[in-house]
């Protein structure tokens, strides 16, 4: 459940994907916890505790995916800087280089969900 929200973050360009992912995980964790406390089984303390444990596990999975995304983003920065700093390249070659960096990041991000 939470891991799916982690990958919704990929659609956002306003902030880094990993930051957006962490925000989504936090929101989903709070929603899950609230559902545990307010749900039908909230009267049974053991059910609430079990539900909260499940929320924590899902949250950890989500955060792990976000951390993976963050590592991918950090790897892309040196690649893009290298492309931009090579003044000997023509603009088209520089764009190709940046595209290659983006593809590497995308491949890295794909591994975050596995």
TrEMBL record:
It comes from the Eukaryota. This is Uncharacterized protein.
């Amino acid at each position: 459940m939470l891991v799916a929200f982690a990958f919704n973050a990929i659609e956002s360009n306003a902030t880094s994907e990993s930051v957006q992912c962490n925000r989504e995980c936090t929101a989903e964790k709070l929603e899950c916890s609230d559902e545990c406390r307010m749900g039908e089984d909230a009267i049974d303390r053991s059910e609430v505790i079990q539900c909260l444990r499940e929320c924590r596990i899902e949250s950890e999975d989500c955060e792990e995916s976000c951390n993976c995304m963050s590592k991918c983003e950090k790897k892309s920065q040196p690649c893009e800087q290298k492309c931009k700093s090579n003044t000997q390249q023509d603009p088209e070659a520089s764009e190709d280089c940046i595209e290659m960096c983006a593809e590497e990041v995308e491949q890295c991000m794909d591994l975050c969900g596995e």
